[in-house]
């Protein structure tokens, strides 16, 4: 369990450790690349506030360590990007 | 072991001395002030090798205690009512940081209107802060419980702060014979288990911003420690009994409950009154028992359910009021019994607010009312303000 790996007292034990942490960990939803043709318009990349998207020769890559899950890319390009829930584990008695 | 005549504050101070507490930040407040005075007398007289930190508020007192506990010192403070309310922010910090601070809470009514008299409302207001809450019925229990509290708080399975509650004036300013144990026996029972979180050679940032990614998991850990503490409280009480000969049972104590049709449930100083009320009613042939709730947090649901089985009714007496709900103890008892088949009726009284005296006669009257009423109270149970003046 995750809680077994957490310190008893909430703390960071190394200076600068925050900079090594993934900035995407607080994301609630993530962009998922849909199959299809890319027009190479790079709007997704332009609008991404985190600089997490690279487009090269019709190839889309998303750096999930930077992505916060805002969904702007999926709004700009509904053909190639959709937002899916980040959390896929147990949600309670119904899931 | 010496038998001394001590009031509740003096008994608490003796416990602090015997526990060899190292750091005591304090901001005296009536009627807890004599506790701080007595602790300082021990330090000044060379009987306690501890440091007293003068601070500018109760909030700062607990903040200083947090600092001392973070570097691994055995730490104690005391407060009551308005002081506890002012501390509230740091009360939550202490538990969240999992620091084994022990605090004497002299239960005094919260303002407004202003009052200096006994009422559990101050500690009840902190019920969800993550501290263990133990309630004492007499001054001997105050001394013994503070010594036990350090063992419980410092236990690896717990690592949570503990409030030791006793009441304004009824306990703080009433002297009773109290056995003060020998230092050597306490030392054997209570070795210092130093667990520093901060270390100058290994810098760390404590209480750093934690988003939703980990907050739930930290809270689940805290909850788990609170649940685990119930067994530790019982274990420590048993070992204390073996070493010191006084048995405070743990989280609850049953008094003359065998074959009882009705069981009174209460905590704090009202327990000692209720014992006499039970004796008197038993002598009159009435089948009455008493369940003392010593630990309000963790709340001993299993023991409540066990004692409730087969009774006609529970008579819960609260010296606190949760506005719009009733007494907190009655609320917890009802929650514990929800869904339990053939759970007894629960008759709830709010009594003794702001220090109004609750006597043996009063308790006998409450139970008589319940027995005579034959009321079938199902579903949401009302409560009564005992002794409410109507003219």
Please characterize this protein's 3D structure.
The complex is a heterodimer of chains A (95) and B (391). Chain A is an alpha+beta fold and 95 residues long. Chain A has a domain at 35-81: Alpha-Beta Plaits, CATH 3.30.70.20. Chain A has helices spanning 2-5, 17-20, 43-47, 72-76; strands at 11-12, 29-33, 53-56, 59-62, 81-85. A two-stranded antiparallel ribbon of chain A has the order 2-5. The longest helix of chain A has 5 residues, at 43-47. Chain A is flat, with a radius of gyration of 17 Å. The mean pLDDT of chain A is 85. With 391 residues, chain B is α/β, with parallel strands linked by helices. Chain B folds into two domains: 2-244, 3-Layer(aba) Sandwich (Rossmann fold), CATH 3.40.50; 252-385, Rossmann fold (3-Layer(aba) Sandwich). Chain B is 40% helix and 19% strand. Chain B contains twelve helices and 16 strands. Chain B has helices at 8-18, 33-44, 58-70, 81-96, 121-124, 139-154, 183-189, 215-244, 270-283, 301-308, 328-337, 360-373; strands at 2-6, 23-26, 51-54, 76-80, 102-107, 132-135, 162-167, 176-180, 205-206, 252-255, 262-266, 288-293, 295-297, 313-318, 345-350, 383-385. A six-stranded mixed beta sheet of chain B has the order 10-12-11-14-15-16, with helices on both faces. Chain B has a five-stranded mixed beta sheet with strand order 4-5-7-6-13, sandwiched between helices. A two-stranded antiparallel sheet of chain B has the order 1-8. In chain B, strand 11 (262-266), helix 9 (270-283) and strand 12 form a beta-alpha-beta unit.
């Amino acid at each position: 369990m995750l809680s077994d790996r957490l310190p008893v007292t909430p703390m960071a034990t190394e200076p600068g450790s925050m900079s090594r942490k993934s900035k995407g960990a607080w994301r609630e939803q993530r962009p998922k690349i849909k199959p299809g043709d890319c027009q190479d318009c790079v709007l997704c990349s332009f609008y991404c506030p985190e600089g997490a998207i690279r487009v090269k020769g019709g190839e889309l890559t998303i750096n999930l360590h930077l992505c916060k899950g805002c969904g702007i890319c999926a709004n700009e390009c509904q053909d190639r990007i959709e937002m899916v829930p980040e959390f896929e584990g147990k949600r309670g008695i119904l899931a | 072991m010496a038998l001394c005549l001590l009031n509740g504050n003096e008994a608490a101070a003796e416990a602090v001395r015997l526990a060899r507490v190292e750091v005591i930040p304090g901001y005296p407040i009536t009627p807890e002030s004599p506790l701080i005075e007595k602790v300082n007398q021990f330090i000044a007289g060379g009987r306690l090798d501890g440091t007293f930190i003068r601070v500018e508020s109760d909030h700062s007192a607990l903040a200083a205690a947090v600092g001392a506990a973070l570097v691994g010192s055995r730490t104690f403070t005391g407060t009551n009512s308005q002081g506890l309310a002012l501390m509230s922010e740091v009360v939550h910090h202490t538990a969240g940081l999992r620091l084994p601070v022990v605090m004497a809470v002299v239960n005094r009514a919260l303002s407004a209107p202003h009052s200096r008299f006994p009422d559990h409302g101050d500690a009840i207001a902190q019920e969800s802060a993550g501290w263990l809450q133990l309630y004492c019925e007499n001054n001997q229990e105050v001394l013994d419980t503070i010594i036990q509290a350090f063992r419980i708080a410092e236990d690896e399975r717990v690592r949570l702060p503990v409030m030791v509650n006793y009441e304004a004036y009824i306990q703080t300013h009433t002297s009773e014979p109290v056995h003060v144990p020998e230092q050597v026996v306490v030392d054997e029972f209570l070795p210092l288990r130093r667990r520093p979180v901060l270390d100058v050679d290994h810098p760390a940032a404590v209480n750093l911003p934690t988003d939703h990614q980990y907050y739930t998991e930290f809270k689940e850990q805290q909850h788990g420690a609170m649940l685990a503490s119930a067994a530790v409280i019982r274990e420590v009480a048993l070992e204390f009994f073996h070493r010191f000969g006084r048995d405070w049972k743990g989280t609850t104590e049953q008094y003359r409950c065998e074959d009882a049709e009705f069981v009174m449930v209460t905590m704090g100083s009202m327990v000692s009154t209720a014992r006499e009320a039970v004796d008197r009613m038993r002598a009159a042939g009435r089948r009455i028992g008493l369940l003392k709730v010593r630990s309000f947090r963790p709340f001993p649901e299993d023991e409540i359910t066990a004692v409730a089985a087969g009774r006609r009714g529970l008579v819960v007496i609260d010296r606190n009021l949760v506005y719009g709900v009733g007494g907190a103890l009655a609320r917890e008892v009802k929650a514990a019994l929800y869904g339990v088949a053939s759970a007894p009726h629960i008759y709830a009284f709010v009594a003794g607010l702001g220090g109004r005296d609750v006597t043996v006669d009063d308790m006998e009257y409450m139970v008589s009312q319940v027995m005579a009423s034959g009321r079938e109270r199902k579903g949401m149970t009302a409560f009564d303000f005992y002794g409410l003046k109507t003219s």
